[in-house]
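Example 3.2
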Amino acid sequence: MRQPRPSPPEGLSKAVAQEYFLQFEAYKMKTITGGCACGAIRYEVTAEPIVTFNCHCRDCQKTTGGAYTPVFYVPANAFKITKGTPKYFGTTSDMMGDNVRGFCPDCGSRLFGGKTDFGQGIAAGSLDDPNLYKPQHEIWTSDAQPWDAMDPQLPKFEKYAPRE
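Structure, written as C-alpha coordinates:
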Protein backbone atom coordinates (compact mmCIF):
# COMPACT_ATOMS: atom_id res chain seq x y z
CA MET A 1 0.00 0.00 0.00
CA ARG A 2 2.88 2.38 0.69
CA GLN A 3 5.05 3.92 -2.02
CA PRO A 4 8.74 4.74 -1.50
CA ARG A 5 9.33 8.28 -0.31
CA PRO A 6 10.69 10.50 -3.10
CA SER A 7 13.57 12.93 -2.66
CA PRO A 8 12.43 16.52 -2.11
CA PRO A 9 13.26 19.08 -4.78
CA GLU A 10 16.77 20.53 -4.49
CA GLY A 11 17.38 23.67 -2.44
CA LEU A 12 14.52 23.39 0.08
CA SER A 13 15.09 24.41 3.68
CA LYS A 14 14.78 21.66 6.30
CA ALA A 15 11.38 22.99 7.45
CA VAL A 16 10.01 23.19 3.90
CA ALA A 17 11.39 19.70 3.09
CA GLN A 18 9.69 18.34 6.23
CA GLU A 19 6.37 19.89 5.15
CA TYR A 20 6.88 18.40 1.68
CA PHE A 21 7.19 14.91 3.19
CA LEU A 22 4.13 15.41 5.40
CA GLN A 23 2.04 16.43 2.41
CA PHE A 24 3.41 13.50 0.38
CA GLU A 25 2.48 11.05 3.16
CA ALA A 26 -1.07 12.43 3.30
CA TYR A 27 -1.39 12.37 -0.50
CA LYS A 28 -0.14 8.84 -1.00
CA MET A 29 -2.30 7.24 1.73
CA LYS A 30 -4.85 5.25 -0.19
CA THR A 31 -8.35 5.57 1.19
CA ILE A 32 -9.65 2.20 2.34
CA THR A 33 -13.34 1.63 1.63
CA GLY A 34 -15.96 -0.95 2.43
CA GLY A 35 -19.60 -1.58 3.08
CA CYS A 36 -22.43 -4.04 3.40
CA ALA A 37 -23.67 -6.67 0.94
CA CYS A 38 -26.55 -4.58 -0.42
CA GLY A 39 -24.65 -1.27 -0.67
CA ALA A 40 -26.89 0.67 1.73
CA ILE A 41 -23.99 1.29 4.16
CA ARG A 42 -20.58 2.53 2.98
CA TYR A 43 -17.55 3.66 4.97
CA GLU A 44 -14.01 4.88 4.41
CA VAL A 45 -10.78 4.82 6.38
CA THR A 46 -7.93 7.28 5.80
CA ALA A 47 -5.23 5.56 7.87
CA GLU A 48 -3.60 2.19 8.08
CA PRO A 49 -4.90 -0.20 10.77
CA ILE A 50 -3.56 0.05 14.31
CA VAL A 51 -3.80 -3.72 14.68
CA THR A 52 -5.40 -6.68 12.91
CA PHE A 53 -6.46 -9.91 14.62
CA ASN A 54 -8.85 -12.84 14.59
CA CYS A 55 -11.17 -12.80 17.63
CA HIS A 56 -12.51 -16.22 18.65
CA CYS A 57 -14.71 -15.05 21.58
CA ARG A 58 -18.23 -16.45 21.86
CA ASP A 59 -19.81 -13.08 21.01
CA CYS A 60 -17.85 -12.93 17.75
CA GLN A 61 -18.85 -16.50 16.97
CA LYS A 62 -22.52 -15.66 17.55
CA THR A 63 -22.50 -12.41 15.59
CA THR A 64 -20.70 -13.93 12.58
CA GLY A 65 -22.17 -17.41 12.66
CA GLY A 66 -18.60 -18.65 12.23
CA ALA A 67 -15.43 -19.45 14.12
CA TYR A 68 -14.18 -15.88 14.63
CA THR A 69 -14.33 -12.25 13.52
CA PRO A 70 -11.39 -10.97 11.47
CA VAL A 71 -10.88 -7.48 12.96
CA PHE A 72 -9.29 -4.57 11.08
CA TYR A 73 -8.88 -2.01 13.92
CA VAL A 74 -8.34 1.58 12.75
CA PRO A 75 -7.93 5.00 14.41
CA ALA A 76 -11.36 6.43 15.34
CA ASN A 77 -10.60 9.79 13.74
CA ALA A 78 -9.74 8.10 10.41
CA PHE A 79 -13.07 6.23 10.14
CA LYS A 80 -16.17 7.74 8.54
CA ILE A 81 -19.53 6.36 7.43
CA THR A 82 -20.14 7.83 3.97
CA LYS A 83 -23.55 6.37 3.14
CA GLY A 84 -26.50 5.10 5.14
CA THR A 85 -27.22 4.67 8.82
CA PRO A 86 -26.20 1.40 10.46
CA LYS A 87 -28.12 -0.18 13.33
CA TYR A 88 -26.24 -1.07 16.48
CA PHE A 89 -26.45 -3.85 19.04
CA GLY A 90 -24.49 -3.97 22.30
CA THR A 91 -23.03 -7.01 24.03
CA THR A 92 -20.97 -7.22 27.23
CA SER A 93 -17.20 -7.34 26.73
CA ASP A 94 -14.59 -8.27 29.35
CA MET A 95 -12.28 -5.52 28.13
CA MET A 96 -14.62 -2.74 27.05
CA GLY A 97 -17.83 -3.02 29.07
CA ASP A 98 -20.33 -2.86 26.23
CA ASN A 99 -19.16 -3.75 22.73
CA VAL A 100 -21.44 -1.96 20.28
CA ARG A 101 -21.58 -3.76 16.94
CA GLY A 102 -22.85 -2.07 13.78
CA PHE A 103 -24.73 -3.81 11.00
CA CYS A 104 -26.83 -2.94 7.95
CA PRO A 105 -30.54 -2.69 8.80
CA ASP A 106 -31.44 -3.79 5.24
CA CYS A 107 -29.25 -6.83 4.52
CA GLY A 108 -27.97 -7.61 8.06
CA SER A 109 -24.27 -7.52 7.16
CA ARG A 110 -22.04 -7.24 10.24
CA LEU A 111 -19.73 -4.25 9.69
CA PHE A 112 -18.22 -2.81 12.88
CA GLY A 113 -17.57 -3.43 16.56
CA GLY A 114 -15.25 -2.49 19.36
CA LYS A 115 -15.65 1.27 18.98
CA THR A 116 -13.80 3.44 21.46
CA ASP A 117 -12.59 7.05 21.49
CA PHE A 118 -9.26 5.61 20.31
CA GLY A 119 -10.31 3.23 17.54
CA GLN A 120 -12.95 1.45 15.51
CA GLY A 121 -13.07 -2.27 14.75
CA ILE A 122 -14.14 -3.21 11.23
CA ALA A 123 -15.16 -6.71 10.13
CA ALA A 124 -12.46 -7.41 7.53
CA GLY A 125 -14.88 -9.21 5.23
CA SER A 126 -16.71 -5.91 4.70
CA LEU A 127 -13.61 -4.26 3.14
CA ASP A 128 -13.88 -3.64 -0.61
CA ASP A 129 -10.41 -5.18 -0.84
CA PRO A 130 -10.27 -7.90 1.83
CA ASN A 131 -6.70 -8.72 0.71
CA LEU A 132 -5.65 -5.68 2.78
CA TYR A 133 -6.38 -7.76 5.88
CA LYS A 134 -3.27 -9.48 7.25
CA PRO A 135 -3.95 -10.82 10.77
CA GLN A 136 -1.19 -10.25 13.30
CA HIS A 137 -2.45 -12.60 16.01
CA GLU A 138 -5.39 -14.63 17.37
CA ILE A 139 -7.25 -13.62 20.56
CA TRP A 140 -9.75 -15.36 22.81
CA THR A 141 -8.44 -18.74 21.74
CA SER A 142 -9.84 -20.05 25.06
CA ASP A 143 -13.29 -19.80 23.42
CA ALA A 144 -12.23 -21.27 20.05
CA GLN A 145 -14.20 -24.25 18.80
CA PRO A 146 -12.46 -27.60 18.21
CA TRP A 147 -13.34 -27.35 14.50
CA ASP A 148 -11.70 -23.91 14.20
CA ALA A 149 -8.54 -24.37 12.10
CA MET A 150 -6.35 -21.52 13.33
CA ASP A 151 -3.25 -20.36 11.45
CA PRO A 152 -0.32 -22.13 13.17
CA GLN A 153 2.01 -19.23 12.21
CA LEU A 154 0.09 -16.56 14.19
CA PRO A 155 0.72 -15.80 17.88
CA LYS A 156 -2.20 -16.94 20.04
CA PHE A 157 -3.59 -15.49 23.26
CA GLU A 158 -6.15 -17.13 25.56
CA LYS A 159 -7.81 -13.77 26.08
CA TYR A 160 -6.49 -10.39 24.90
CA ALA A 161 -3.04 -9.77 23.45
CA PRO A 162 -0.75 -7.89 25.84
CA ARG A 163 -0.64 -4.15 25.31
CA GLU A 164 2.70 -2.91 24.10
